[in-house]
Design goal:
Distance between the termini: 88 Å
Structural class: mainly beta
Order of helices and strands: EEHHEEEEEHEEEEEHEEHHEEEEHHEE
Radius of gyration: 28 Å
Number of strands: 20
Helix content: 10-25%
């Protein structure tokens, strides 16, 4: 019926363990193996493997009909792995809990961190079906994850992805390829959610934009492992849209939160020195915002203008975004309805708060300009604090 083993180990290295199994455990079939060992309960003080280090790992290995069931418990994870005897059958990884390392305190710190999976070769990963009930980033819950991993020529491919991440749903396919000078990862799929304000807050950004729904289609790649994804290293295409929401002022109490520069349209409105008191109330409302970026290594061209259409205003932006250095060099076109709160005379000279002859000019030019005045601005500098200068009305 086999034997049971219970042991306490000060340390265990996965590569040494695999070598020992190949040397001492016969591999002629499930029936032979099952007679040697039925169950092993190990308390490991320190575990090394898969590019990771774990302290206090409890392992419960049990023999099943045609597979080994391995229970895993530590401060970072809790669950089981089913290792089938038959070659080519995917490993089943089912975890109730997985804790990922604490997130960086700042974007700069995140960029400076090394690739956490740099020591793993993607060609060494077996076929796996992965289901994790609860993923945590530090102490913060992300949600459930499900995906399939399959070896391919030169690396591993991930499919059937359903990753929940603080209000974001990530779906699609990805891969991790081994190259002569390192590794490279890719993702082709969608990030989607409902109220963007909730997602921004959850990820440590100020809730500067709301939405009924939003999505971003991504066809991108970056150097390193899937865990080393970064906007500063990203190449490819981003196609985003948001529907039915508003851009709102960031209250003083949110100073600890970062402002996501690309969504700081309310600040742009203030910098244009326009009087939007009749529009703002609960924020600068929009019906739809969309745009397409295309670039390499964080240097993006606005391929399709970032446009915002709302009941009170229209924005359209084209130019370049340097997401590696958080810089912008773009042209902003603003369509503003002529009203007593936005003097036409002031718009024509690039000083929107200048009043005085507003009524006279409005009467003189109302037949020619219609209901909407277009004004062009130059936007240059840091994404979270750009310099906006008047160019011309048209």
């Amino acid at each position: 019926a086999g034997i049971d083993v219970s042991a306490k180990l000060a340390s265990l290295d996965w590569d040494e363990w695999q070598a020992a199994l190949k040397k001492y455990v016969p591999s002629s079939g499930a029936s032979t193996n099952s007679q040697l060992l039925r169950r092993a309960i190990l308390q490991i003080g320190h575990f090394s493997g898969f590019g990771q280090e774990l302290d206090q790992l409890d392992v419960d290995v049990q023999r099943k009909a045609s597979a080994w069931s391995v229970g895993l418990t530590s401060a970072l994870l809790d669950g089981s792995v089913l290792l089938p005897d038959q070659a080519g059958v995917p490993i089943e990884l089912n975890l109730q809990r997985l804790s990922l390392p604490e997130p960086a305190d700042s974007d700069a710190e995140a960029e400076a961190r090394p690739d956490p999976l740099a020591d793993i070769k993607p060609t060494s990963l077996p076929a796996m079906n992965i289901n994790i009930a609860e993923v945590k980033l530090g102490a913060e819950p992300l949600g459930s994850w499900a995906l399939k991993a399959r070896p391919v020529a030169g690396g591993v491919a991930f499919s059937d992805m359903q990753l929940h991440a603080k209000g974001l749903l990530v779906t699609g396919a990805a891969g991790w390829d081994e190259l002569n000078n390192g590794t490279r990862s890719w993702f082709k799929g969608r990030l989607a959610g409902k109220n963007l304000a909730d997602v921004l807050t959850a990820w440590g950004y100020a809730p500067s934009a709301t939405s009924e729904r939003f999505r971003m289609n991504v066809d991108g790649n970056w150097p390193g492992s899937p865990a080393w994804v970064s906007m500063a290293r990203l190449s490819g295409k981003l196609d985003a849209s948001m529907h039915k929401g508003s851009f709102v002022e960031v209250a003083g109490g949110t100073k600890a939160l970062r402002v996501f520069g690309l969504l700081n349209f309310n600040a742009i409105g203030r910098r244009l020195r326009l009087d939007f008191s009749d529009m703002y109330g609960k924020g600068l409302a929009y019906d739809k915002l969309s745009g397409i970026l295309q670039g390499d290594d964080g240097q993006f061209l606005i391929e399709k203008p970032i446009s915002m259409v709302g009941p009170s205003m229209q924005f359209k932006m084209d130019g370049r975004l340097d997401l590696a250095k958080d810089q912008i060099d773009a042209q902003l076109h603003v369509g503003i309805p002529v009203s007593s709160n936005i003097p036409l005379a002031a718009l024509l000279v690039g000083a929107p708060m200048v009043a005085g002859a507003a009524f006279v000019v409005d009467k003189l030019f109302s037949n020619q300009v219609g209901n909407l005045v277009q004004v062009q601005y130059k936007v240059v500098g840091p994404l979270d604090d750009p310099k906006i200068s008047f160019v011309k009305p048209y």
